[in-house]
Amino acid sequence: MSLPLVSVVIPAFNAERHFPQAIESVLAQTYRNIEVIIVDDGSTDETPQLARAYARRDSRIRVFRQDNAGVGAARNRGMAEARGEFIAPLDADDFWNPEKLEKQTAVLVARGERWGFAYCWSNSVDREGKVTEPIVHWPVEGEIFEALIYRNIIGNASVPLFRASALREVGGYLTRADQGGVQGCEDWDLSLRLAAKYSVAAVPEFLVAYRQIAGTMSSNFSGMASSYQFAMSGLRHRHPEVPPRLYRWSSGHFFMYLLNTAYTAGNYPECFRMIRHLLAADATMILCPTIYRVFIVGLLRMLTGREILRRTRRPQTGWTPRQVLWIPAQILEARRWGTIKHGTKIE
């Protein structure tokens, strides 16, 4: 039997530093029946020249250029040009494990038409591409719509493998213009629209390297917050049957994610703003010790201008005070997770 064609869509804007690693990870895939669609979103660096050089080297690669319109519009352009039965987006600063497409394609082919996309797990990597930590994951699949509202268990835009027919039914990504000039949560929004209509498959392996560095879209905290609120507003309108508490819990977790991202970036004024947002969204998040550490450490570093109270990693023996402080928040999380329809757990 011939293998189905997979269309890899790479939106790229001023991505010359990391783009080669992204495209090389695609060309190294063990799944060979692919086409690669690169959409240059108005780059002003060497990205267009790099893309054209790769297209000359490999006939499976096609390059399109457009005026800068944002990542959602670039992905939509790539999907419109795609000819594959499956579509795999890859951001130009991320990269894949060689078996990523093979394993996701196999599970979708085996499951059938009612499974709209497959996801896997991710590792965070630094500017040099070295793994910094695994991203927290939830091994569930099937009917995961409410679980996906609660937390973005897909993780990032470079993870899913979509069934093209499902995408044609629900439409493409929100664009920057759709969101009033912001962007950041259009991948979560698209996953939610698919999960509302289709089952979702999981490949429980770390197959994606997700790069978060200063200056990328994921570090634009205000824009990400506005994009999240826009996406959730649309979701509330489409699904009034979803309990309001689920949206509150979702908001609390999302602003906690932005708080951690801002803290890692050393943006302490943004940390304080995110603490205000997450407590306004879900007051029970005050049980999380992270809030107190970020507030105290951030304030001291702003006042002194020094990197004080830097945590050092030590061999762990028994329960630490930090783990004990987390117990109330973990109990609350377990109770909430137990009330959500989250599909089938993967052992």
Summarize the structure.
The protein is an alpha/beta fold and 347 residues long. The protein has helices at 19-27, 47-57, 71-81, 100-111, 145-150, 164-170, 186-195, 221-238, 244-265, 268-281, 289-304, 321-339, and strands at residues 6-12, 34-41, 61-66, 86-89, 95-96, 115-125, 131-134, 140-141, 161-163, 199-211, 344-345.
Count of folded domains = 2
Order of helices and strands: EHEHEHEEHEEEHEHHEHHHHHE
Helical element count?
12
Distance between the termini: 31 Å
CATH architecture descriptor text of the largest domain: Alpha-Beta Complex
CATH class of the largest domain: Alpha Beta
Supply the helix-strand structural class: alpha/beta
Helix content: 40-55%
Q: CATH topology of the largest domain, anyone?
A: Spore Coat Polysaccharide Biosynthesis Protein SpsA, Chain A
By CATH, the superfamily of the largest domain comes out as Spore Coat Polysaccharide Biosynthesis Protein SpsA, Chain A
